[in-house]
């Protein structure tokens, strides 16, 4: 079956008045036929452009999919039929691309496909875990409950990602801005002082000469340095995208970083617990659930550990023993899993563990931000203050000589 698209039309309605709008269809001819059946004589029908547009038409992000899932769960819990829920959610969105995606899924469902099959046609936005959980909800007749679980899972996962991203990007962003400001001062401001110093006719302090030397170097080679930095960043990004070995090495190294490594470790454990709790509560067999969990941890060390756990569990070993044998899971979550297995409440214990480690990540990010702020201010003070001192030192010395 051809995938549906959105078509923009202009024409005349039953009363002979000019009208225009949008319609979902598989091609232009069928769109015209649909409009005729509604009593509209279409003069123009064209496929809606999906190119980049300003004002909310940007790319669809994971947070958008999370919002869509939560709204669908709310609609279905209120008793709204599935196909109608799609339309209500799509009309209330600000992003045209997301609305178009939802209408495409709606058309697939209304033509007889299951919700999960319609979602699997868009793997860029709905991963295998998402589709499997929806499929499980449809099979068990509890789709609204499953969508609510997926929405909670997506919201907590995106919140966790945002916290980790904040911890990693905040200090880097401030230091980059400091380097840019320092570069502008060295290239544009220091040469002005250099012209003034040339009229002094006196020997300049060593620190001032050092700064002037850096300024002259940057003036001569700043373009080469900028191109080199951009090229190095691009080359690193390409190498990381293409080389699994490099990505794995970065993942291992990130866990050994001071302070930040602890945040990454706790976030990986939280993702493991949250994903396994969601899939296991959905009725997915434990071995199959671990397959889905492995890719959601976000770090190769934990991904490989989950695969080892899966292999052990498939041979009949208890989950908590398998986790302990990997040597990467904290003792606290291992104990919680053991209690959950004994009490027959594994999903509940995993959810509590996820809550605990997500809170730990939140606290660690706040502590890191509080710790980094005075350090960053100190670095900024040394960079900017050092440049100012270097430029005014000869003036102070000249004033002392004149005063003497």
Can you put this structure into words, describing what you see?
With 404 residues, the protein is mainly alpha-helical. Helix content is 74%, strand content 6%. The protein has helices spanning 28-37, 62-77, 82-91, 96-110, 115-120, 128-140, 143-198, 206-242, 244-255, 260-281, 286-294, 300-314, 319-326, 331-343, 346-403, and strands at 5-12, 18-25, 41-47. A 3-stranded antiparallel sheet has the order 2-1-3. Strand 1 (5-12) and strand 2 (18-25) form a beta hairpin. Helix 6 packs antiparallel against helix 7, helix 11 (286-294) packs antiparallel against helix 12 (300-314) and helix 12 packs across helix 13. The protein starts with a strand and ends with a helix. The relative contact order is 0.08.
In N-to-C order, the SSE pattern is: EEHEHHHHHHHHHHHHHH
**Could you tell me how far the N terminus lies from the C terminus, measured between alpha carbons in angstroms?**
93 Å
The DSSP helix count reads 15
The largest pleated sheet is described as: 3 strands, antiparallel
Structural class computed from helices and strand pairing = mainly alpha
Order of strands side by side in the largest beta sheet?
2-1-3
Question: What is the residue-averaged pLDDT?
Answer: 82
User: Nearest-angstrom radius of gyration?
Assistant: 30 Å
Number of strands: 3
Strand % is 5-15%
Shape: flat
Spans of 5+ residues with little confidence (pLDDT < 50)? 51-57
Kindly state the percentage of residues in helix: over 70%
């Amino acid at each position: 079956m051809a995938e549906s698209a959105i078509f923009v039309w202009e024409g005349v309605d039953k009363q002979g008045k000019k009208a225009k709008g949008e319609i979902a269809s598989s091609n232009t001819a069928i769109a015209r036929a649909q409009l005729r059946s509604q009593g509209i004589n279409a003069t123009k029908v064209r496929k809606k452009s999906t190119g980049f547009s300003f004002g909310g038409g940007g790319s669809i992000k994971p947070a958008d999919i999370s919002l869509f899932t939560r709204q669908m769960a709310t609609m279905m819990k209120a008793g709204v039929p599935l196909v109608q829920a799609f339309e209500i959610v799509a009309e209330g969105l600000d992003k045209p691309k997301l609305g178009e995606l939802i209408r495409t899924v709606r058309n697939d469902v209304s033509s007889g496909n299951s919700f999960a099959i319609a979602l699997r046609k868009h793997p860029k936005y709905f991963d295998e875990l998402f589709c499997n959980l929806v499929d499980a909800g449809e099979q068990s007749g509890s789709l609204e409950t499953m969508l609510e679980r997926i929405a909670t899972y997506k919201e907590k996962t995106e919140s966790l990602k945002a916290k980790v991203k904040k911890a990693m990007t905040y200090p880097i962003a401030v230091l980059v801005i400091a380097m840019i400001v320092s570069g502008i001062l060295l290239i544009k401001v220091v040469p002005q002082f250099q012209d003034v110093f040339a009229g002094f006719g006196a020997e300049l302090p060593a620190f001032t000469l050092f700064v002037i030397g850096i300024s002259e170097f940057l003036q001569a080679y700043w373009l080469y340095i900028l191109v080199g930095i951009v090229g190095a960043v691009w080359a690193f990004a390409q190498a990381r995208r293409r080389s699994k070995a490099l990505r794995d090495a970065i993942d291992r190294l990130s866990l050994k970083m001071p302070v930040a490594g602890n945040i990454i470790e706790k976030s990986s454990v939280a993702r493991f617990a949250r994903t396994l709790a969601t899939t296991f509560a959905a009725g997915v067999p434990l071995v199959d659930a671990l397959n889905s969990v492995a890719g959601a941890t976000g770090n190769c060390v934990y991904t490989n550990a989950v695969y080892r756990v899966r292999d052990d569990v498939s041979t009949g070993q208890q989950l908590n023993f398998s986790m302990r044998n990997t040597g990467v899971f904290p003792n606290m979550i291992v104990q919680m899993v053991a209690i959950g297995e004994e009490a027959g409440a594994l999903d509940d214990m995993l959810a509590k563990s996820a809550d605990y480690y997500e809170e730990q990540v939140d606290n660690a990010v706040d502590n890191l931000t509080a710790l980094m702020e005075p350090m960053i201010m100190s670095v900024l003070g040394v960079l900017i203050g050092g440049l100012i001192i270097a430029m005014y030192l000869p003036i102070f010395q000249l004033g002392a000589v004149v005063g003497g």
